[in-house]
Amino acid sequence: MFASMNAQKERSTARRRILKGAKIIFRRRTAAIDCTVRDISGGGARLLLASVIGIPDSFELTIPGEPVRQCRLIWRKSEQIGVAFV
Fold first, then answer.
1. Is 0.85 topped by the overall pTM?
2. What is the pLDDT of residues 13-64, one digit of tens each?
3. What's the CA gap between 20 and 18, in Å, rounded?
4. Class assignment of domain 2-85?
5. According to the model, what pLDDT value does residue 38 have?
6. How far apart are CA 76 and CA 44, in angstroms?
7. So where are the chain's domains?
8. Residue 7 confidence (pLDDT)
């Protein structure tokens, strides 16, 4: 929990909790992985996936009803990743 509090302090904007299906798009839009957005801010998001294996360092994130976002992988653990919007 201490690490989460420090990470929150380091973010420029607070994340809001959501539970929304999304897709990670990569390889020049020829590959996609389903994910769930768990929380999001203007600068990034935390995504839940079946597996973090094979997730590239940069990709597009598509969330229904929202603009496509270019993402850079910041951290990964277990079945979650943190991304920054670029």
1. no
2. 788 999 999 999 999 999 999 999 999 999 999 999 999 999 999 999 999 9
3. 6
4. mainly beta
5. 97
6. 14
7. 2-85
8. 52
Q: Is the pLDDT of residue 3 over 60?
A: no
78 to 5, 26, 40: CA distances (angstroms): 19, 21, 19
Please list the helix, strand and coil fractions of the chain in percent, rounded to the nearest 5, in that order: 10, 55, 35
Q: Which residue has the tokens 């539970």?
A: 19
Distance CA 52, CA 69 (A): 19
Residue 71 · residue 85 · CB < 8 Å = yes
User: What is the Rg, in whole angstroms, of the alpha carbon atoms belonging to the chain?
Assistant: 12
Residues 6+ apart with CB under 8 A from 15: 8, 39, 40, 41, 44, 45, 46
